[in-house]
Amino acid sequence: MKLVWEIKNKGKMIWPEGSKLVMIRGNFICEDVVLRKIEPGEKALVEVQTRLPYSEGICNGTWQIDTGNKKFGKIKAYVKCMIDEKVRTLVNMGFSTEKAKAALNNSNGDLDLAISQIPNI
């Protein structure tokens, strides 16, 4: 899943091009994000590729800026996870929630592929 966040450089140091937004803690999977040059006081939109769990609840993470020479900051984000309609569809077809989640996870969310994989899980 792709999320788009707005971040702001609240410090006095330029974040040079090639700096990364790196997840240091969290209860979901998130790829590092390579940043463009961001001046102090400047805001930027970043696209974050994530893999959220197929369960309801709050997903949270903490990131740092890594310039290659220095790591700093704590950027916290929270994402509210709802049970996916695809999970509900599979459960309504008679599959257990666990099998539905596993099949969707293995098929990267493709419902038709998940249905074909459930007997093998």
From TrEMBL:
InterPro entries assigned to the protein according to its UniProt record, in alphabetical order: Ig-like_fold, Nbr1_FW, UBA, UBA-like_sf
Pfam families per UniProt: N_BRCA1_IG, UBA
Main location: cytoplasm
Domain of life: Eukaryota
Domain UBA: 82-118
GO cellular component, one term: autophagosome
Subcellular location: Cytoplasmic vesicle, Autophagosome
Designated name of the protein: UBA domain-containing protein
Species: Stentor coeruleus
